[in-house]
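Quiz preparation item.
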């Protein structure tokens, strides 16, 4: 994770990406693109390991209520697979 602070509100807004949860609601996730790249670089093959690693890294920058962790994990894996599944 880069840990770099954005220079302005416009740059900060670019760091937030929308994630669709299983119930259809959307949440903003800070650093999602860099988190996905970091996890892809780990070359994990098991979906459960990928979900666990994604959620662990997302929780560094974003609050995830304990009751929502399963939904976030499913949504993160789905989006991750959409972006990195064919590599």
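Solution:
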């Amino acid at each position: 994770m880069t840990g770099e602070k954005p220079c302005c509100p416009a740059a900060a807004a670019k760091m937030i990406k929308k994630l669709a949860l299983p119930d259809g609601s959307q949440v903003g996730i800070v650093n999602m693109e860099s988190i996905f790249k970091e996890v892809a670089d780990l070359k994990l093959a098991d979906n459960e390991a990928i979900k666990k690693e994604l959620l662990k890294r997302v929780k560094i920058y974003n609050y995830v209520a304990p009751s929502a962790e399963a939904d976030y994990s499913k949504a993160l894996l789905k989006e991750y697979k959409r972006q990195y599944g064919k590599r």
